[in-house]
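Reviewers of the previous submission asked for a worked example of the structure-prediction workflow described in the proposal, so we include one complete record here. The input consisted solely of the amino acid sequence. No template or homolog information was supplied to the procedure at any stage.
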Amino acid sequence: YDSISRTVYVSVTVPGTSLTPTVLDIVVTMDAAATVGTVMNEADFYNGVTDAFIVSKSASTTVLPSANLEVSKSADKLIARQGNTINYTLVFKNTGPQAAAGTVMNDPLPAALILNTASLTSTAPTVSWISTTNTIKWMGNLAVGQVVTITYNATVASTATDYLALINLASLDAPNAASIVYSSAATEALPFIKVYLPIIIK
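From that input alone, the workflow returned the following structure tokens.
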């Protein structure tokens, strides 16, 4: 493969006069900035001995407009202690130019965070909590310009390790999204400080 000319070169030897079919699979990823329209890919065949041109074959792919998704996540505490409650806000949207059908948002919580399920709200359906993976999941369709806000709070477990970084990374994707997007929020779990005061008896 020549990265400068973006060309794949293949050399195949056909023994004698017996033509042996050769299957070549080339997998590519469409650039997120690809222009909407038709992409043409052409393959040229040459005689390996005389270098004479034999034939050209081509295939085309239609590039459709995609949906550009954005997501941001925030926590109201940078530092928390065991038993403290942290409030989270997730905001995601579709900036177009196409609607995003089948959009999925996943927000897995660290094991040291206990979700207060009654606090889970969303401005658009449907949001749920998957207890087996401790994950908040939103599924639905995002129209162009639509913004969805999810809020919830979670409690730092009593078993949380001191100075543990509580980081949970949310992801947002759709079948026609230009790319999957991420956003995270972090809070450090600090230990309780024990203070001993002497008793003075006069």
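The radius of gyration is 28 Å. We consider this example representative of the routine output the project will generate in years two and three.
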